């Protein structure tokens, strides 16, 4: 059985660390990776670096972790987008292993 995965895209590395910390304190999740993305329009963004926090756990824990992480990131630089995949397929699992860091 695959674990759920939460993907939280935030502005900046500090926000990613703070969001990760909040998620792990709020729920039984583990941070699988932090990914970076510098989009083409980076100069127009509030922070020129977008980070994705990937967290894993049960669907209930990922939901709780994502809520805490989103609240923490919004206190700093903000959230770009978020998504939870309750039961990733094996092909999705392969893609989740890709990391830019």
Automatic annotation (TrEMBL):
Q: Name one GO cellular component term.
A: bacterial microcompartment
Q: Which controlled-vocabulary keywords does the entry list? A: Bacterial microcompartment
- Output the Gene3D superfamilies linked to this UniProt entry: 3.30.70.1710
Q: Where in the cell is it found?
A: Bacterial microcompartment
> Where does the source fall among the domains of life?
Bacteria
Provide the BMC domain boundaries: 4-97
Q: Which residues form a coiled coil?
A: none
Looking up SUPFAM superfamilies in the UniProt record yields: CcmK-like (SSF143414)
Principal subcellular localisation of the protein: other
The family assignment reads: Belongs to the bacterial microcompartments protein family.
Protein name according to UniProt: BMC domain-containing protein
